[in-house]
Task: structure prediction
Amino acid sequence: MRIAVFASGRGSNFNAIAKAIKSQKIKASLALLICDNPDAAVILKAKRFGVKTFLIKRADYKDKPDFENKIIQVLQEEKISLIVLAGFMRILSNDFVLRFKNKIINIHPSLLPAFKGSHAILDAFNYGAKVTGVTVHFVDELMDHGPIILQQALKIEENDTLESLEAKIHKIEHRLYPEAIRLCVQARLKIKGRKVHPALH
Ligand code: GAR
Result:
């Protein structure tokens, strides 16, 4: 199965996924990084792993459909079966999501449905939550929403700082995301009782 990771930033999840694929814990090919930010550290990480990068800037396209059509063209050319969102800070349109139904997965640094959005760790910390965590889910038309693949809870300790909490969350992410991708690749997931295998869609 050929996988594309979509990322906009640091790329620590990209790194964890690339490592798991390289060591064959996930038996798939990391064919492509799609990145919308020319300054993102993830681009260097992809280079290090020899993963082809397609840099696509929203500003270079007249509108969102145009931008997404270009991405779709690249995904088709590269025969991608599974799209892995790893800190891709752009909301995909309903058309895009429906076109790749059950073929897009996302990681989010909270126990969804709590603390959606782009500052989930900070929001949970500021709220005074006693428990937070990490969620990996299939992507549907709503933001940070869709059938859950894996979740792991984490207790927020009295002496946790934002920084210590972030470090603990990322550590969980780097284990949980490769595991979820492995389950996807092995077609061991069901949505509402029906088996899901991205490559068969
Ligand atoms: C991760 O913590 C991921 O859960 C989060 O972006 C970070 C990317 O880090 N995603 C979201 O908040 C999605 N709503 P990384 O670039 O180091 O992998």
Summary: The longest helix spans residues 162-185.
